[in-house]
């Protein structure tokens, strides 16, 4: 459907599925079922993390609850400034809960770093991050990310939730765009 716009498939549907299962099984072992903190609370960051969030939640062999936040970082469309605005906040209090942020991609890490500080101030029992993708820049930022699906090169990617101008989120794999898409 978007074949003419995609330059290459970076991560296939099968690779995403396999890695998501591995991450889910590893992460589940850290959260004992029936803990006083209640079910693990997944916080998905809209919109990019939607598909990873739903596939990851279903791959986790423990009960979870799901909440969503939408944030927008000021800056150009391809780089973020670290100044973040909440477009949609959580509906529920997270105090005393085990919280796991589910992210699509960490690039500069500025958005995540802000989000971690914001959510920490709400006093969760624990706060961790799982991200499907991570770019090389992200390693410079002082945010502890225990679990990463794939380390990818510093290229602009789309698909599986990630957009270019709101398009391509519905691709089932992660791919790179043909430059003609940017240049029109
Ligand atoms: P950071 O604050 O880590 O630089 O930015 C993270 C956000 O930038 C992601 O949640 C995503 O919205 C956007 N982003 C960063 N790299 C890419 C990319 O390669 N493709 C797409 N579609 N979005 C990206
Ligand atoms: Mg994101
Ligand atoms: Mg985007």
UniProtKB/TrEMBL annotation:
<keyword id="KW-0328">Glycosyltransferase</keyword>
<dbReference type="InterPro" id="IPR005904">
    <property type="entry name" value="Hxn_phspho_trans"/>
</dbReference>
<keyword id="KW-0660">Purine salvage</keyword>
<dbReference type="GO" id="GO:0006166">
    <property type="term" value="P:purine ribonucleoside salvage"/>
</dbReference>
<keyword id="KW-0547">Nucleotide-binding</keyword>
<feature type="domain" description="Phosphoribosyltransferase">
    <location>
        <begin position="15"/>
        <end position="164"/>
    </location>
</feature>
<dbReference type="GO" id="GO:0006178">
    <property type="term" value="P:guanine salvage"/>
</dbReference>
<keyword id="KW-0460">Magnesium</keyword>
<dbReference type="GO" id="GO:0052657">
    <property type="term" value="F:guanine phosphoribosyltransferase activity"/>
</dbReference>
<dbReference type="InterPro" id="IPR050408">
    <property type="entry name" value="HGPRT"/>
</dbReference>
<comment type="similarity">
    <text>Belongs to the purine/pyrimidine phosphoribosyltransferase family.</text>
</comment>
<dbReference type="GO" id="GO:0000287">
    <property type="term" value="F:magnesium ion binding"/>
</dbReference>
<keyword id="KW-0808">Transferase</keyword>
<keyword id="KW-0479">Metal-binding</keyword>
<dbReference type="Pfam" id="PF00156">
    <property type="entry name" value="Pribosyltran"/>
</dbReference>
<dbReference type="GO" id="GO:0005829">
    <property type="term" value="C:cytosol"/>
</dbReference>
<keyword id="KW-0963">Cytoplasm</keyword>
<dbReference type="GO" id="GO:0032264">
    <property type="term" value="P:IMP salvage"/>
</dbReference>
<dbReference type="InterPro" id="IPR000836">
    <property type="entry name" value="PRTase_dom"/>
</dbReference>
<protein>
    <recommendedName>
        <fullName>Hypoxanthine phosphoribosyltransferase</fullName>
        <ecNumber>2.4.2.8</ecNumber>
    </recommendedName>
</protein>
<dbReference type="GO" id="GO:0000166">
    <property type="term" value="F:nucleotide binding"/>
</dbReference>
<dbReference type="GO" id="GO:0046100">
    <property type="term" value="P:hypoxanthine metabolic process"/>
</dbReference>
<dbReference type="GO" id="GO:0032263">
    <property type="term" value="P:GMP salvage"/>
</dbReference>
<comment type="pathway">
    <text>Purine metabolism; GMP biosynthesis via salvage pathway; GMP from guanine: step 1/1.</text>
</comment>
<dbReference type="InterPro" id="IPR029057">
    <property type="entry name" value="PRTase-like"/>
</dbReference>
<dbReference type="GO" id="GO:0004422">
    <property type="term" value="F:hypoxanthine phosphoribosyltransferase activity"/>
</dbReference>
<comment type="pathway">
    <text>Purine metabolism; IMP biosynthesis via salvage pathway; IMP from hypoxanthine: step 1/1.</text>
</comment>
